[in-house]
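Renewal narrative, Specific Aim 1. Our central claim is that a sequence can be written position by position from structural information alone. The example that follows is taken directly from our test logs and has not been curated for this report. It begins with the structure tokens describing the chain, in the order in which they were read.
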């Protein structure tokens, strides 16, 4: 089974080199945070800011009146419990180095070989009791917030940087206490790990005392999303979701959260059977997509069904999550995709919409159509 080679799904374009091994070096954090070329992507209470229909970001040396004084206040408390959100009012997370700009004068260079523009996400939850005060971020609060609609109209590079920052900052803003002992936790490694502050050796903490690590890592929730096709790709099963688009309804692939101790393939088989009653043995992964609502990874798969009078029969009686599921002729779906101009949703029949290019479901449906066309042309 081939994958979608070379193509990035929306939110899945890796424009920054994460250099994850450098995040634990305090010298790296401090030198990158203070370099004039470093670019900050500000969020206010988890919401990014908008600049002419795109993601707002600002270089340190362009923001002497706003970001620089904030960084100066944060530098002394990096990797200490004073940097917790409730004390500082700020979460900061290193995103990576933007490379391909090595020749520009004044570029950030670390240990003579890691070059590029450092990117940080910075999220403000300030009040009168936090180290950073509301007055410190005054000019940022005048910038409009980035709407969900604008996010899906941005170019994929900006959307992917947004998604990357959003997922780390969302995690940092939600987790305040150690799951092992209830002590406060604080960010380390440039905001990519959370450390337990319990220093009392007589109080046991499964997180702090674990043999492998004493920190908490960010979470990513895996979701399987699967296109169901007949063995000859002549039919595709799509399911109706609850959302409406004017007078039209949406049909798409089915999806569900993976459960512990499940393989991707078994999660697909389970979701297919639970939601549609269809029995499908043959499952393969096609492509994946980070999805920052809030911290999902969509694992896009294809399920191929061998029709035998039983396997392909649709039943919505099991978990009753779907309003409807139907087998459609791939020929008709392919026609709808060929008429699609790439903007917004795909118009399929008068009253049905299919997901557009920003959704991994679109690529899975297109994959089935491509398989169908290849098969037709070889007959
Ligand atoms: Zn603990």
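The sequence written for that structure reads:
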């Amino acid at each position: 089974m081939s994958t979608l080679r070379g193509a990035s799904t929306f939110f899945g374009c890796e424009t920054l080199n994460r250099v994850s091994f450098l995040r634990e070096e305090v010298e790296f954090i401090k030198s990158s945070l203070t370099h004039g070329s470093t670019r900050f992507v500000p969020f206010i209470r988890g919401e990014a800011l908008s600049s002419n229909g795109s993601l707002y970001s600002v270089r340190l040396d362009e923001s002497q009146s706003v970001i620089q004084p904030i960084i100066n206040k944060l530098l002394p408390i990096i990797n200490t419990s004073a940097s917790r959100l409730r004390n500082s009012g700020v979460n900061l997370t290193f995103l990576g180095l933007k490379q391909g700009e090595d020749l520009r004068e004044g570029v950030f260079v670390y240990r003579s070989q890691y070059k590029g523009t450092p990117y940080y996400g910075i999220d403000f939850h300030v009040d009168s009791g936090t180290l950073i005060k509301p007055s410190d971020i005054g000019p940022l609060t005048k910038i409009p917030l980035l709407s969900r609609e604008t996010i899906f109209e941005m170019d994929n590079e900006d959307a992917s940087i947004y998604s990357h920052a959003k997922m780390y900052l969302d995690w940092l803003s939600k987790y305040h206490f150690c799951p092992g002992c209830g002590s406060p936790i604080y960010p380390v490694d440039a905001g990519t790990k959370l450390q337990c502050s319990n220093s009392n050796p007589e109080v046991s903490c499964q997180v702090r005392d674990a043999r492998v690590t004493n920190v908490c890592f960010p979470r990513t929730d895996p979701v399987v999303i699967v296109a169901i096709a007949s063995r000859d790709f002549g039919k595709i099963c799509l399911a109706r979701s609850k959302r409406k688009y004017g007078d039209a309804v949406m049909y798409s692939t089915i999806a569900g959260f993976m459960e512990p101790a499940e393989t991707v393939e078994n999660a697909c088989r389970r979701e297919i059977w639970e939601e549609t009653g269809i029995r499908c043995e043959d499952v393969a992964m096609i492509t994946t997509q980070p999805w920052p609502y809030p911290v999902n990874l969509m694992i896009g798969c294809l399920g191929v069904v061998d029709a035998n009078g039983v396997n392909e029969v649709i039943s919505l009686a099991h978990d009753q999550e779907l309003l409807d599921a139907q087998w459609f002729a791939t020929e008709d779906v392919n026609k709808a995709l060929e008429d699609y101009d790439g903007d917004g949703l795909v118009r399929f029949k008068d009253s049905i919409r299919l997901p557009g290019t920003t959704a991994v479901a679109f690529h899975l449906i297109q994959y089935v159509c491509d398989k169908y066309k290849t098969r037709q042309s070889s007959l």
